UniProtKB/TrEMBL annotation:
SUPFAM superfamilies: Galactose-binding domain-like, Protease propeptides/inhibitors, Subtilisin-like. One of its GO terms (cellular component) is extracellular space. Residues 1-22 form the signal peptide. It catalyses: Release of protein hormones and neuropeptides from their precursors, generally by hydrolysis of -Lys-Arg-|- bonds. PROSITE patterns: P_HOMO_B, SUBTILASE, SUBTILASE_ASP, SUBTILASE_HIS, SUBTILASE_SER. It comes from the Eukaryota. The lineage of its organism: Eukaryota, Metazoa, Spiralia, Lophotrochozoa, Platyhelminthes. GO terms for biological process: peptide hormone processing. Belongs to the peptidase S8 family. Furin subfamily. It comes from Macrostomum lignano. This is Neuroendocrine convertase 2. Its main location: secreted. Its EC number is 3.4.21.94. The active site is at 173 (charge relay system), 214 (charge relay system), 390 (charge relay system). Residues 109-130 are annotated as: Disordered.
Length: 634
């Protein structure tokens, strides 16, 4: 399984290199060194001989190490003069001076904190925490102008005694105030680390504007203690929370990201990330090589082989951005979560894309008091103003923690299937009328903005209890088109691949779809005007790249970029797939060229829900009936 994944990763890694190579490189004082052989003592000897400072072993590998050189600038436009002497050392097989790049928190807005510790009266089956009535994302009664009942449906899970017990979620962010009285009880010190300061204490660095409150707020949404008279209550208030401080530094590096995403992978169950490349509507970026290694090893080896669960905020670039241009959110190894407001709309900052699996909540209308997400804040304080998809991802992590308590044997793929099957349309809608809800040929309803709907904690817990692990996953390189096609404003390009989905190859045959990737190479005189649609043999059409008004790139384009869609989940892959590339531009001179389209389909050979009993989820019953009527294996 790992080898097959690694093959596909090769394309992804080339993508990032191609996309970022046009930008001016910024080199840090961090080095990735691979030794010819040896151990920790050899690594220390290399450090003494070259002036390097050993930071840590990389990804647990015997011969790979992360070093820092204190005499090299933290950021420089040219490679260090020390690089050659390190490379020439008799014990060194390979050395890479790491580039620095920006990673930004999503949805951060400085807000005045509040003190909320008085107790209130409440019914015995609801929390007594003073801010609970303002946590509309847990129980929406119409407060702050919301739609009653539009929430995470958490209370039914709590009523069954499921609170996330035994599950640890790591917040990869700017640190956690682990001394906060609402978090201290659930803080997992063993699973926490500070990758910015290289010590086991990921406490946020002080700033006057509380800029480093981001991770603490996210943590509170998951694990704030119940009934202690402080702030509110977490979605999975019985679960543990860990802090992986890694964002608070001048520049991110590939090895720091990789180290965080692989840290204590048999103790940490869920990694929650509310950050990514800059949400400016013109960036195309994603994980580098070592981070991709960490993610793939995580889903294959984490949680003692069941797979680490990576939850990602889809992005805050608004309608002028597309989260399929974010290689973290658009990865099939992560669960990408978008947000909805408390009345069912998309927020102004919400990005949309075909890789989004589901949604949770960020905030309500800005004009409404207390419409933000209520959670903890730094220094023992509370806030009512957390927002953005930053707030959405931790809510999802909390729901997944509940599911893992209900069934600790769930694999990373089981969790994705559960999300698809139990998420609800509820009252989510596009106020602009551009993206309707659509039912694919497997009977699953999806939306380009919201994925398969809002997470339903009660249903995911109920379904998880009797869940049977899904069949083995395979991938099929279904076909490729490699020739030049020119397109302009007047003339779109339509391409076809007719595939049997590796029918005659038992090692790669696909009968039931999970993820679909379209690896595309193209350039345009204005990249942001390009739109791409992918249509399955069943007729299901997915917008895999939307117009990005701010993206004026004319040189780099996309190089084997893996556009991903989840919209064909459960369908049959056999037949003609169509790719339409068009320009949404008023300038008639805009034109482009596409030179490559590779179609890769991921899924199972066996019907994934055949062993599940009826009544677990209405979606399961619908899909089983459709699969019984249609022969997907022919």
């Amino acid at each position: 399984m790992f080898n097959r994944a690694a093959i596909l990763l090769g394309w992804c890694l080339l993508v990032i290199a191609a996309v970022t190579s046009s930008k001016e490189s910024l080199f840090t004082n961090h080095f990735h060194v691979t030794l010819k052989s040896g151990n920790e003592e050899v690594a220390k000897r290399v450090a003494r001989d070259t002036g390097l400072r050993l930071v840590r072993r990389h990804l647990g590998k015997d011969t790979e190490f992360h070093y820092v050189h204190d005499q090299v600038p933290e950021a420089d436009s040219v490679l260090s003069r020390h690089l050659r002497s390190i490379a020439d050392h008799e014990d060194v097989a390979r050395v890479v001076q790491l580039e620095g790049f920006k990673r930004v928190k999503r949805g951060f807005k400085p807000a005045k904190a509040t003190q909320s510790r008085q107790k209130r009266s409440a019914s015995s089956d609801e929390p007594t925490d003073p801010m609970f009535k303002k946590e509309w994302y847990i129980k929406n009664t119409g407060q702050a102008g919301g739609y009653p009942g539009l929430d995470l449906n958490v209370l039914p899970a709590w009523k069954e005694g499921v609170t996330g017990n035994g599950v640890t979620t790591a917040i990869m962010d700017d640190g956690i105030d682990y001394m906060h009285p609402d978090l201290a009880h659930n803080y997992n010190m063993e699973a926490s680390y500070d990758f910015s300061s290289n010590d086991p204490y990921p406490y946020p660095r002080y700033t006057d504007d509380w800029f480093n409150s981001h991770g603490t707020r996210c943590a509170g949404e998951i694990s704030s203690k119940r009934d202690n008279g402080i702030c509110g209550v977490g979605v999975a208030y019985g679960s543990k929370i860990a802090g992986l401080r890694m964002l608070d530094q001048p520049y991110m590096t590939d090895l720091i990201e990789a180290a965080a995403m692989s840290y204590k992978r048999d103790i940490i169950d869920i990694y929650s990330a509310s950050w990514g490349p800059t949400d400016d509507g013109k960036t195309v970026d994603g994980p580098r090589n070592e981070t991709m290694r960490a993610i793939v090893e995580g889903v294959n080896k984490g949680r003692n082989g069941k797979g680490s669960i990576f939850v990602w905020a889809s992005g805050d670039g608004g309608p002028d951005d597309d989260c399929n241009c974010d290689g973290y959110a658009a990865s099939m190894w992560t669960i990408s979560i978008n947000s909805a407001t408390n009345d069912g709309e998309t927020a102004l900052y919400d990005e949309s894309c075909s890789s989004t699996l589901a949604s949770t909540f960020s905030n309500g209308k800005a004009s409404t008091l207390d419409a933000g997400v209520a959670t903890v804040d730094l220094y023992g304080k509370c806030t009512l103003h957390h927002s953005g998809t930053s707030a959405a991802a931790p809510e999802a992590a909390g729901v997944f923690a509940l599911a893992l308590e209900a069934n600790s044997n769930l694999t990373w793929r089981d969790m994705q299937h559960l999300v698809v099957l139990t998420s609800k349309r509820n009252h989510l809608y596009d106020p602009n009328g551009k993206h309707d809800w659509t039912v694919n040929s497997a009977g699953l309803e999806f939306n380009h903005l919201f994925g398969y709907g809002v997470l339903d904690a009660g249903d995911i817990v109920k379904t998880a209890r009797d869940w049977k692990t899904v069949p083995e996953r395979f991938h099929c390189i279904a076909g490729e088109v490699k020739r030049l096609y020119h397109f302009n404003v007047q003339n779109a390009i339509e391409m076809e691949i007719d595939t049997d989905a590796c029918k005659d190859d038992p090692k790669h045959r696909i009968n039931y779809i999970e993820h679909v990737q379209a690896f595309i190479t193209l350039k345009s005189t204005r990249r942001g005007d390009v739109t791409v649609f992918l249509t399955a043999p069943t007729g299901t059409t997915s917008l895999i790249l939307s117009k990005r008004q701010k993206d004026a790139d004319s040189k780099v384009g996309f190089t084997s970029w893996p556009f991903m869609t989840t919209h064909m989940w459960g369908e049959s892959p056999r037949g003609k797939w169509k790719l339409k590339v068009a320009l949404d531009a008023t300038d008639a001179s805009v034109h482009g060229v596409i030179s490559e389209w590779v179609l890769v389909i991921h899924g199972t050979q066996e019907q994934p829900y055949k062993k599940l009993r009826s009544g677990l989820s209405s979606k399961i019953d619908v899909i089983k009936k459709i699969h019984e009527k249609k022969s997907y294996t022919e």
